[in-house]
Design goal:
It is built from 13 helices and 20 strands. It is an alpha/beta fold. The protein starts with a strand and ends with a strand. Bound molecules: (2S,3R,4R)-2,3,4,5-tetrahydroxy-N-oxo-pentanamide and cobalt (II) ion.
Length: 410
Amino acid sequence: MIIEQADVIVTSPDRNFVTLKITTDDGLTGLGDATLNGRELSVVSYLRDHVVPLLIGRDAGAIEDTWQFLYRSAYWRRGPVTMAAIAAVDVALWDIKAKAASMPLYELLGGASRRGLLAYGHASGGTREALFDSIRDHQEQGFKAIRVQSGVPGLKSIYGIASDATYSEGETHEYEPAQRGALPHEEDWDTGSYLRHIPTVFEAVRNEFGPELPLLHDAHHRLSPIQAARLGKSLEPYDLFWLEDVTPAENQEALRLVRRHTTTPLAIGEIFNTVWDYQQIVREQLIDYVRSSVTHTGGISHLKKVLDYAAQYQIKSGMHGPTDVSPVGMAAALHLGLAIHNFGIQEYMQHGARTNEVFDQSFTFTDGLLHAGDAVGLGVELDTDEAGRYPYERAYLPYNRLADGTVHDW
Ligand code: EZ4
Ligand code: CO
């Protein structure tokens, strides 16, 4: 099994996706997701200009050796661009190895540790009524755990709220932060208003939907350590499954302070990309869930190491699953989540209809549980003709300003 060809495919059906397709001399193909939201073309160049020439002629079966070769021979280590590029190679090689073995990938990773993966969906609303409708809609779709994001009085447009304008019955509607256009969209932010409002939202949701429904919330990196501590404490009566990204966590020590004040479980790491980003917060037991995706953390080989390390401290997986993780990246997450012991929950945002035409997928979502399906390999194939119909379109994530014009964390 020698790597004969590697192609980087950029397509933008509902949004931009970058996919690496590796082909071997015996005709097997493997796919890897390399989508980095808002910075897609940097990974395309990293792969096309620097990595693809290194892959041709290599043994497709030597996954760990290829990982270490790409990571160490670059000299420049870590970072989202590097780790997304290496992830795409890693996942494509796992796909090929599983196809060569005629197995679904999770079998090759040790076999299934559970029947399916508890998934959470994204409910949101600018108003309480819209939020309740969105929660009901997700329950009708089968979700057994739900993320709750709410508008805040006085703020026009904030993270996590699907726009009501495009919401219509029967249509899957997910929040999509990246917007096509020449410049990023500007949102407004006020931490004081947010901290006052959010506990009232969760009180209302608990009163309406009862004590048992697992509820999650994402603070999206906006709080200082003491503000995060206060939020965790004020949400304790509403028994959250987790509170996500309370602080910009490159300051890992910040979480010591948060932990001292609250028993609300914490999830962090969707923007981390290596095990070293987790070194302190795992060892000191400052988090409860690892948010990294396969796509942004060096692939299955590296994320498995992160999760095995976390398992020693009873920390579980909560892999990032927004629409900017492609169907290929989602499939990789599902196979890994089925195989590991310390699976926690899987984020599941649903891709749009055009995306599902480009990527033929074999996963299932039944009674609140995701399963990777039993096709060999990852179980995803890319229709290159269909992909070719949707050329790349520039898109940016939004950013935030406070009332006085200061740029704030988004
Ligand atoms: O903002 O994936 O928990 N999910 C999130 C996402 C991220 C986007 C960024 O690309 O925080 O909505
Ligand atoms: Co998040």
